[in-house]
Write a structure and sequence with these properties.
Blueprint (H helix, E strand, L loop, with lengths): L3 E4 L3 E3 L4 H16 L7 E4 L6 E4 L3 H20 L3 E16 L5 E17 L13 H32 L17 E4 L3
Parallel strand pairs: 1-6, 2-6
Antiparallel strand pairs: 3-4, 5-6, 5-7
Helix pairs in contact: 1-2, 1-3
Protein name: Autophagy-related protein 101
Keywords: Autophagy
Family: Belongs to the ATG101 family.
Length: 187
């Protein structure tokens, strides 16, 4: 089986931005790969002028939030490190095993790699030029650049999801997320 991988553009985040950005990115991927019956729900990012769509499945929201919290905890223990969150979709195949019965195997058909560089954004050390207005301007400029980067990642997701479809296995159920998945974070 052909397994496609989408390496998303690296996002440079302050720890306070992790949750909002990862929710936006992961929910966007799930929405574009949720091949079952969805109840679309528009969600506004807290930090940016970006609206994304969730699948409307409370269990999926809970699982995504749990994985994001795992990533946040890891990033607090390992500051100033580049890392990845990987979302993988797979099929479960049964293989005939010799004496011990049936062996179950995961066959991945798609990986989404969210590249993240988390580091605290500190304003420059105090100087006579470093007024409150200057710090606010620098923060606003950085946030604007990050918003642009997040938009680029969202367009990258949409383009990949629309162009790469021939590797997706046949749908065998009507669940919101029609295939098993796993979200892996650093440990």
């Amino acid at each position: 089986m052909n397994c496609e991988t989408c390496q998303l553009k690296e996002l440079e985040l302050d720890p306070a931005e992790i949750r909002d950005v990862l929710r936006c990115v992961l929910h966007t991927i799930f929405f574009h790969r949720a091949l079952g019956l969805v109840r679309p729900k528009d969600v506004d990012c807290e930090l940016f002028e970006i609206t994304y769509v969730q699948c409307g499945d409370a269990e999926l929201v809970k699982k995504i939030d749990e994985k994001i919290e795992q990533f946040v905890a890891w990033s607090e223990k390992h500051p100033n490190r580049k890392s990845q969150v990987c979302l993988s979709f797979y099929e479960v195949k049964s293989k005939q095993s010799s004496w011990f019965g049936i062996k179950v195997e995961r066959q991945h058909w798609e990986h989404w790699i969210v590249n993240v560089n988390v580091h605290p954004i500190h304003p420059p050390k105090s100087s006579f030029l470093n007024t409150r207005e200057k710090v606010l301007e620098e923060t606003s400029t950085r946030r604007s650049a990050l918003e642009t980067s997040v938009r680029e990642v969202l367009f990258q997701i949409i383009k990949f999801a629309n162009e790469k479809q021939e590797h997706i296995p046949p749908i065998t159920n009507s669940e919101v997320v029609s295939f098993p998945y796993e979200i892996t974070t650093p440990r």
